[in-house]
Amino acid sequence: MTVTNESDDPQVPIVCTECETTSRVPLADVADAVDRHNEQLHDGDEVAAVDPDVADQIADLVATELGLLEE
Q: Domain DUF8149, which positions (predicted)?
């Protein structure tokens, strides 16, 4: 995976269990980085992804922001 260090963009952890690698990429580049890694190294299979713990936290924040968790 390509890793860049742009200080203005939050860095998102990307993990690949098959390659046993973890890297951080700017938020704006996450989708492209994951797609590129999976295409180049795993024949397009969805192996690399945003760290599951981070993805869960983001989903919770979005659900809260949208009022989906309100009763």
A: 5-71
